[in-house]
TrEMBL record:
This is Sodium-dependent transporter. It holds the Pfam family SNF. The keyword Transport applies. The lineage of its organism: Bacteria, Pseudomonadati, Pseudomonadota, Gammaproteobacteria, Alteromonadales. It is a multi-pass membrane protein. Keywords: Membrane, Transmembrane, Transmembrane helix, Transport.
């Protein structure tokens, strides 16, 4: 059996895990959630819930992964000693494959808009119409390109692929965001955006809808439930102090979401000052794909001279954010094929990439009926239920002594620390109830 890969450094793991968590949702979802839900009051609630809800589940995945040194299917099978444990792992693998199937389509859109920005810089305007069109052929081509980039990184394995590129892409991502923040903040209208983002409306804190939105954002922004953190945890060195590393991952993820808001919301109000519509007919801020593909490109078009370059940097940022998440998603089923089925890594990567690309093509040709359905089935239903099941594994099924033994490998005094005094009962009783409440509330 081939030797399993392992992250060579703590910073490599933190950047890879944070890269998995930092995705397109942090950049186009979190900022408008903040601006629409009480500004800094939402940020306060989000950060609080990220640590009281998402962090404990993150730790469950990391501890299970590093202890079992295995993919999700084998890890949960080993803990449960039952076939149904393996089926839960397969459920997670299918879910993450479906998420990557629609995510690759969106990642392809980002590459298409980046290509258009390059065309604008070199004044090759005749190519823009096709690149920005919504023809199936265009979507398939750029989806294929995105999957090829993802697969190319994952074929390198842990140190030479995922870690190598994460330590390059994540700092670049942060650098580009900060550079754009500085530029946008100097434009007319930016001050209004900063006010919408940073001035708290504390009267909203008790709003149940705000709390549910913040819980959902905190849970999903950390890439939980589908095995990415479990698999990454399985590649972590035994001497690392897991609770400390988990806090670092959570802080980087939260930090990127917060600074993304410092870019997106001021940029929207700069767009407003330049005559671009940023509110829906109902008075809410435009969000999601309309924000990324309509509002911000319209803003870049209004900036004379440097607008094309700002657009180029922005969509480079979006491609990087998409890639850091997609490589972790692809690694989940690849790890299963390599470890459980004995398939060589390169072959396993291209098999899974091909299957997921085929799913993407099916979605593209049935876009109206399947795209929204797949997103809802995976992120709204399957992902929170998987998070709930992982809490059950960590809190009810797995032996406490085995958990403590794993924590001791990175900290001999683990049982005397605050983490061990709180986390075991918290993940056993509190997290499942809160996640179940969030899930039921999301259905109403």
């Amino acid at each position: 059996m081939a030797v399993r890969g392992e992250f060579s450094s703590r910073i490599g793991f933190i950047l890879a895990a944070a890269g998995s968590a930092v995705g397109l949702g942090n950049i186009w979802g979190f900022p408008t959630q903040v601006a629409s839900n009480g500004g800094a009051a939402f940020v306060f609630v989000y950060v609080l819930l990220a640590f009281v809800l998402a962090y404990p589940v993150l730790m469950a995945e990391l501890i299970i992964g590093r202890s079992q040194r295995a993919n999700m299917v084998d890890a949960l099978g080993n803990i449960s000693h039952k076939k149904w444990g393996r089926w839960v792992g397969i459920w997670g693998g299918v879910t993450v494959a479906l998420i990557l199937a629609f995510y690759a389509i969106v990642g392809g859109w980002m590459i298409a808009y980046l290509t258009d920005s390059v065309f604008s810089v070199v004044q090759f305007t005749s190519g823009s119409e096709w690149v920005l069109g919504f023809a199936p052929e265009r979507n398939i081509l750029f989806c294929l390109l995105f999957m090829a980039l993802t697969a190319g990184i994952v074929t390198g394995g842990i140190q030479s692929g995922i870690e190598k590129w994460s330590v390059r892409l994540m700092p670049t991502l942060i650098f580009l965001i900060i550079g754009l923040i500085v530029y946008v903040s100097l434009q007319p209208g930016a001050v209004d955006g900063w006010k919408a983002y940073l001035v708290p409306d504390f009267s909203r804190i008790a709003d149940p809808d705000l709390l549910v939105s913040a819980m959902g954002q905190a849970f999903f922004s950390m890439s939980l439930g589908v095995g990415t953190m479990l698999v990454y945890g399985s590649y972590m060195a035994k001497h690392e102090n897991l609770p400390t590393v988990g806090v670092s991952v959570a802080l980087v993820d939260i930090g990127v979401a917060v600074i993304a808001g410092m870019l997106i919301i001021p940029a929207m109000y700069v767009a407003l000052a330049n005559g671009v519509t940023i509110f829906t007919e109902q008075g809410a801020l435009i969000e999601g794909d309309q924000l990324i593909f309509n509002v911000l490109p319209a803003l870049f078009d209004t900036i004379e001279g440097v607008g094309v370059y700002v657009g180029l940097v922005f969509f480079a940022l979006m491609v990087i954010a998409a890639l850091t998440s997609s490589i972790s998603m692809l690694e989940v089923p690849v790890a299963f094929l390599v470890e459980s089925k004995g398939v060589a890594r390169t072959k396993a990567v291209w098999i899974m990439a091909s299957i997921i690309f085929a799913l993407s093509v099916i979605i593209i040709f049935n876009f109206e009926s399947l795209f929204g359905l797949v997103i809802a089935l995976t992120t709204k239903y399957s992902q929170p239920l998987l998070g709930l099941v992982l809490c059950v594994f960590a809190g009810w099924i797995w032996n406490r002594h085995a958990i403590l033994s794993e924590l001791r490998s990175g900290n001999e005094q683990a049982e005397h620390g605050l983490f061990w005094k709180i986390w075991p009962w918290y993940v056993k009783f509190v997290c499942p109830v809160v996640i179940l409440f969030m899930f039921i509330r999301s259905l109403t």
